[in-house]
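Box S2. Input/output pair 1.
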Amino acid sequence: MIRNDVATVITALRAKVRRMLKHPLASNSVWLATSQYIATGVGVLNSIVAARLLGPANYGTVALVMAYPTLLWSFVGIKSVSVTTRYIADFRATGQNEKLRGIVKLGYGLDFFVSVVAFVLVGATSWWVARSIYGMAHLSWLMVGYAASFPFFSLSATSWAILSSRQRFRWLAGLQILQKVITFIITLSLLVAGFGAPGVILGITLGRIITGLTRMGAATYALSRDEVGPWWSASINNVAPLRKELTAFFGWNYLVVTLSGLIEQVPLMLLGRLRSPEEAGFYRLATSLVTVGSYMESSLGKVTYPILSARWGAGERESIKGTLKRWTLQGGLLAGALMLLAIPFLPIVVPIAFGSGYSPMIPSAQVMMVGAAVSSVFFWLNSFYYSSGRINLWAKAYGLYTSFIIGLGWLVIQRWGFFGLAGLVVVGKVLFTLGMVILTYKVTRDLE
């Protein structure tokens, strides 16, 4: 009898798992996550080669070179993908192709413009940062070289919005792998040729240029296959009635992008200034490992965003509350558990992959994984606030989160270095995530 009951339970679980995997949310997320892990495998191989050939100090120098241009871009960038995805999904669901083409042209145009502005600003100020902040004046030309990729890589954002909104997740998966493979081949060639740290920067730069152009080509082809028409011939006046709404959305999104740039780059720069390039390299590598572990979360979020946006645009808002609960229980808990299961393997993987010189960063990376696991449970959080138009709430809360990390970071880094910063980041991440989850209940009540 017991044996029969166990068999029945196992059969039921298998059937449930099959149903879950056949669901578009699961299958699309698996495509994206799998491609990210494959791409990450190539990226990690690239990092291993660079870390071993350069050593911790030079590897940290590479991180410092990219930190300032990236930070500056976050100040002028608008991260249009978060805005354009919402409206492209909305216009696609309601069959408004002229508005769709208009928002695509607006997205490409704005991204390209701000990327050129960022490049010019890096060229004008990098000499001062390299000399006065880092104390390494020779890094300025490398910063300018890296920033040269901005105008080309800016084409990726709206291209991603087009492909994800049209459910071309297999295309996106292939493009993610292609980006890492191209970057690895170029970087490895330059390292073998003896170019050192400048070779790594140049390899990454060329990889980003090729990525931007390739994604735009794929997105343009997807629109032509769907008979939407060429986006470049569209009139931006098609979305003129939404000018006020778009201005507010882009404004709040700009604030979020700026804050996210601050919270990603300022702690790294402070470590390089107050401690050493080596600790900055540790932090960069640790955040990269956490990012790898969070790929399932990011993939689920990217798939759910156009889904929520389409439902919101079509007026199907009453079912969202139940959907979020179901996503949390069926996908979020699994994603969080997988993150926690990865923690014990870091002491084994890091020394083998990167060398014993990177062993001091392991405890901090393990701590940071805990914060990422909590965030993974609620993978839909960012997508919900953007698709529902409550981006103002997200931006204000993110501002408090950023102030907490940077405000205390200066003191924490001076006293406890990289390990103290890792603990601070985790505490801030958990408090921010749980606070936004609680606020979600209020927002969903307003839908009833």
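Box S3. Input/output pair 2.
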Amino acid sequence: MHAGQVLDMQADLIDRFKQPYFRQIVKYTLNVDDKKRSDQIVNVMEKHVQNAYAYHVNADMSDLVMHAAHMLEDDDLADLSLPPTQIGIVRFDKALPLRDARGKTMMIHWMTWGPGTYEVNGKYESGIMSTCWNDLEEPDEVALAMFDLDSKTNVAEFVKSGLHTRALQEKHLRDFKHEMGRWSVIGTSMLFPGDKLGGEYITVDEGYAEQIEASGDTPYAFTNTDRYLHALWLLMNQTITTVEDETPSAAFRKRATKKNLPASRVTVIKLRRTSGSQRAEGESHVEWSHRWITRGHWRWQPCGTRREERRRIWINSYVKGPEGKPLVVTDKVYSLVR
């Protein structure tokens, strides 16, 4: 997807939020019992999309985001000064996997972020709300089930809605596809300053677990998407990445201006191309029989006055082993080194 297409998709999502049916489906998918709270969340999502600066992450960089998120520590604290803009929408050319609370695999093609508030113990706390979306041109496991007339979930919904004939059910799905376009919301999350990022998976709360079991499914701990977003923000400040603005053609810019998008450009985030080999600090001399590529990892770097502060830096993957020896590469590692 090129820069102009990213802006067009952002404009398309803005238009869809203006449609009552689209908003109704989004609220239903979010599974928020409190109607007032549900309306508030959708309104915030819409404001984020309307005011977001656009970012584009290519496939190589998506690989690195997944690996870097995995390598973060559970006790890492959320740093809300990291986002490059207060509000953003990012397209991942290679979707990020998300296991949902029923153990299904969902795929994140888009994320938005921006200011949000949430009531905690009777008080409203401010943080960053993020939203994840699947692109229905590349539907994930859950989206495919939505289009399956014979799926257990759909059959129950059809009966409840009075859609008893096959013709009515098929029309309902055609209308659904038309109204939703390429957008299928996966869920939202709140990140508060100073909070621990937590583990890679989040345990389902007791009430929702009971609801899942009552429907005949098994509850699973679901993917913590905050780690993806925090890893992306961190990597954007690292030398391993290139962060450059891409200006689309005049036609795309004109459409972006008509939709009142905050910028007629897209910030492209790529994995920096490197060459050559490096030797790790303090590496001892060993007669290795081959060369290999190390896995990248995070390190705490002292900084600031008297080096009393610390910040996360990414230690890039690099080639180890003696020159002239064969290079042994696994696909899983090589995908991170371009």
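Caption for Box S3: The mean pLDDT is 83. Residues 37 and 118 are 9 Å apart (CA to CA).
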